[in-house]
Amino acid sequence: MKPVRWPNCFSIEQLEKRHNRADFHSGVDVVDEWLKKRARQAQTKRLSITRILLKEPNTIAGYYTLAMGQVNFDELPHELVKTLPGTLLPIVTLAWLGLDKRFQGQGHGERLLAQAFADCHRTGHMMPFVAVLLDCATKSAKTFYQRYDFEELPGHPMTLMLSWKLLNCMMSG
Asked: Which of 96, 101, 108, 127 has the most CB atoms around its CB within 10 Å?
């Protein structure tokens, strides 16, 4: 697995109180509100981790939030769960991914997703899970994720899934 390469003056860091969230504007209100009002609280409560793309010295260009979770066996595609026990199954949730308008269209969204994939893959070797799930805030977000092999969860058109098996293949080969 190759590390994600960021242009000079960009770095990935865990969100901290010192980071200025007020100037972040992705163009999607719920994405902005999560970062500004809820991400730090969820992190403090150990419900999720938010990592930010920081442009020096203190501009948040983008972010993503990951959390562990569980899903009912019968909510996942049959092909994925046919050999698994009929119980709650562990997943990773890509809860949020946002990119400030000033940095959109420059490949940073794809790099953020690749960084999130790398974090999920690393986690999957320590804490097993069967898939990465996400809920799309917009149809354009859905289109973006589907370009990277996320598939609709049956019966939930705005919820997408990437199996561990596919993630592992993507990151290992």
From this structure: 96
Give tens-digit pLDDT for 94-152. Answer: 999 999 999 999 999 999 999 999 999 999 999 999 999 999 989 999 999 999 999 99
Beta bridge partners of 51: 14, 64
The DSSP call for residue 3 is P
Q: How many residues does the chain have?
A: 173
Is residue 3 situated within a structural domain?
A: no
Q: Is residue 166 part of a domain?
A: yes
In this predicted model, what pLDDT tens digit does every residue of 51-70 receive, in sequence order? 999 998 889 999 999 999 99
What's at 58, amino acid-wise?
N
Where helices occur in the chain by DSSP H, the ranges are 29-33, 39-44, 78-81, 108-124, 139-146, 164-172
> What span, in angstroms and rounded, lies between the C-alpha atoms of 156 and 71?
13
Domain CATH for 52: 3.40.630.30
User: 60 lies in which domain range?
Assistant: 10-172
Q: How far apart are CA 96 and CA 42, in angstroms?
A: 12
